[in-house]
From TrEMBL:
May mediate accelerated ATP-independent bidirectional transbilayer migration of phospholipids upon binding calcium ions that results in a loss of phospholipid asymmetry in the plasma membrane. GO terms for molecular function: phospholipid scramblase activity. It comes from Peucedramus taeniatus (Olive warbler). One of its GO terms (cellular component) is plasma membrane. Belongs to the phospholipid scramblase family. Pfam families: Scramblase (PF03803). This is Phospholipid scramblase. InterPro entries: Scramblase. Its cofactor is Ca(2+). Keywords: Calcium, Lipoprotein, Palmitate. The gene is Plscr5. It comes from the Eukaryota.
Length: 221
């Protein structure tokens, strides 16, 4: 563990990561979009990290699903251990030359890897890359991401797209949450021996998937 980026030793023995978006009272009552905050937990429900999205009110209101953001992820001591950076890019299959990209740093200032959207006319597809921009894994989502009263799974696959090694799941949160708030509950399941840097990149992929497919309050019904 002495070779791991500081703070990522918490991920070393995890094969499941839970990401829970915290409900903001103002957003729940007035429907006002506020800066997202998340708790990142182990399978026992113990908080490992907390995350805060940074951007402007203008970005959240006018550019909502495609907005640029920086998400700072800190451990329980308040030390920032992961930084997720998303530039403002297109969110349409009509512009395949300008699709989504995400940069994940750990520690902040040091590249851990990237999430790159791949063009596909039918399925959500992404490539996970390491710090050298070498392809490591694929993520393939379902044809329909609305998920009628059930979980929605994005499969984590080997580069040949034949072998599934894990998944990112959007958990069904119930009628009240899905109608009145944008609250999201995700789970990441991967092999325990997966490189912790790639686990950190998959956390970033989870945030990207949330905004791209589940940002609207009626998603999940």
């Amino acid at each position: 563990t002495h070779n791991l980026p500081p703070g990522l030793e918490y991920l070393n023995q995890l094969d499941q990561i839970i990401i829970h978006q915290q409900v903001e009272l103002l957003e729940a009552i007035l429907g006002t979009e506020t800066s997202s905050k998340y708790e990142i937990k182990n399978p026992l429900g113990q908080r490992v990290y907390f995350a805060v999205e940074e951007n402007g009110c203008f970005d959240r209101k006018l550019c909502s699903p495609i907005r640029a953001f920086t998400i700072r992820i800190a451990d329980n001591a308040g030390r920032e251990v992961i930084r997720v950076i998303r530039p403002l890019r297109c969110n349409s299959c009509c512009f395949p030359c300008f699709l989504q990209q995400l940069e994940v740093q750990s520690p902040p200032g040091t590249i851990a890897g990237y999430v790159v959207q791949n063009w596909d006319p039918f399925l959500p597809k992404f490539t996970i890359q390491n710090e050298s921009k070498e392809d490591v894994l694929k993520i393939i989502g379902p044809y329909a991401t609305c998920g009628c009263f059930e979980d929605v799974d994005f499969e984590v696959k080997a580069l040949n797209e034949m072998t599934t090694i894990g998944k990112i799941s959007k958990y069904w949160s119930g009628f009240v949450n899905n109608v009145f708030t944008n609250t999201a509950n995700f789970g990441i399941q991967v092999p325990v021996d997966l490189d912790v840097r790639i686990k950190a990149v998959l956390i970033g992929a989870c945030f990207l998937i949330d905004l791209m497919f589940f940002e609207n309050s009626l998603d999940g019904l």
